[in-house]
Amino acid sequence: MRDATDDVPTLHRRSFLKHTGALGAAAAVSASLSACSAGPESTIDIGGGRQGPNRTLTAVIGYGNDGNWDPTQTASAFCMAGNNHLYEGLLDTDPVSREPYAALATRVPADPNSTTWRFTLRPGATFHDGRPVTADDVVFVFDRILDPDTQTLAKGFFAPWLKQVDRIDARTVELVLKFPFPEGLARLTLAKVMPEHVYSRPGAWDEAIKGLAVGSGPYRLSAHHPKSNTTFEAFDGYNGPRPPAFRKMNWLTIVDAAPRVARISGAAAGAQLADNIPYADIAHLESGGLTVAGGHGMNNLFLMFNTGRAPFDDVRVRQALHYAIDTEKMVEVALKGHGRPATSFLDESNPAHRRAGTVYGHDPDRARSLLKRAGVSGLEIDILAVNVSWIVDCLPTVKASWDAIGVRTTLSPQETTAVFTKMDQKRDYQVVAAASNPNQFGLDADLIMRYNHGPENLWMGYARWAGDPVARQLFRDMDRATREPDPARKRAMIQDCIDVVAEQAVLYPVVHNELMTAWDPGELAGIRAQPYPGINVLQAKWA
């Protein structure tokens, strides 16, 4: 997990961090990527000058670029944002509305409730190496996702409802559904079409993790420097619906807030666009002529408890620790008003939001009572936390709140990779505090729930909760909700599942916050702030 969450359902022991993008690439990227090197390169000028249509768009991303670049596996904010410019699905979705549009396919199916969707590929579509996109490439990717012996993040988003994908002819495929599932149309953007002739080679999936990227999107990857920067060039062979507006792009990875803000501000600003803007810097950036806009969404600070360790196996203890937190103070002090205390697993802007049956308002007396009923006293907790800037800002409120009810609390923020390496190695822990944002994948509540909950979900493995009787019943109820054909009934069933998640408080948000993006309106037009980490410039252009 990273500011976005980098997280995921999977049993594949190449590690959770690979799926989430929290694991740094340990080796150089494939030779197919030019100019790859280790070491800091974020000050590189990749050319094009500062004026004219061929100048370089420089963006600053507040998340690491050293995560997993395999589109079937990743939840890395940086890598997912990059892949949206490098690859296409049969359908892709608008980055803000999340409405599906025809990408590699020529049209969106007329009947979303059909159990078969037939797609014809866009004439003349080619991969970055010049080879044509074929139906075999589409089948290749879906076969990987649906393979019962291959665990990927994408599998959890498709396997419950998608039976198979068949080749009809060289340019036509048919998706066969297990039951009507109209939400699946928007999910097709998560199945990026990849060339079989590249990724079927031995070792190619490992190379994809490290940064091998051959897609059919409007940009191609020109260089990749883990922990520093990733560069893109316009793909001249692209003939799809959202052509490249920039000849070159240089995306810098700067996780620390101060240097990220410095890069976009002032007379010597070296970038035109930056995400993950700290709230305290908004007024300063606006006074300097920049546009700063936000998006409310699923981005959240969550707590995950180790239910395999007493007393966190007792739901009363988990609830007590949530009731103890002064979330209003956290929003006011740490988030400068750009957030809301969680009233559900879903954020309040989600169309399916319903106030949960259990809402953790600040109630220290109730917290003390729950601990007493659980027979717990003298509790000492060390919070293992990611060092994402806004999470670090929130942690003192958690500590002060827990100290106030007699729970002696220490804070241990560290690199995201270090936190989840410990999780992957099954190290002992008490409580993890980190950030998550399933909106990277979509808005539908079924998808968001499956992102964190499921019998084969790695999150549930980290929490040691998948075998709990309440969890097993929850997973069965989720499956029934997925299959429910009536939209209103399905929504109610999913909300009932969310009530269980709220009551159990195994992995649950404390606050949902607004993500801020800044850009120079004198340089860029068409930028829209999105409510999840990363950027999307497929509809942007030079001003």
UniProtKB/TrEMBL annotation:
Residues 99-449 form the Solute-binding protein family domain. One of its GO terms (biological process) is peptide transport. Transmembrane segments: none annotated. GO terms for cellular component: ATP-binding cassette (ABC) transporter complex; cell envelope; periplasmic space. InterPro entries: Peptide/Ni-bd, SBP_5, SBP_5_dom, TAT_signal, TAT_signal_bac_arc. Keywords: Signal, Transport. Pfam families: SBP_bac_5 (PF00496), TAT_signal (PF10518). It is found in: Cell envelope. It comes from the Bacteria. GO terms for molecular function: peptide transmembrane transporter activity. Belongs to the bacterial solute-binding protein 5 family. PANTHER family: PERIPLASMIC BINDING COMPONENT OF ABC TRANSPORTER, PERIPLASMIC OLIGOPEPTIDE-BINDING PROTEIN-RELATED. This is ABC transporter substrate-binding protein.
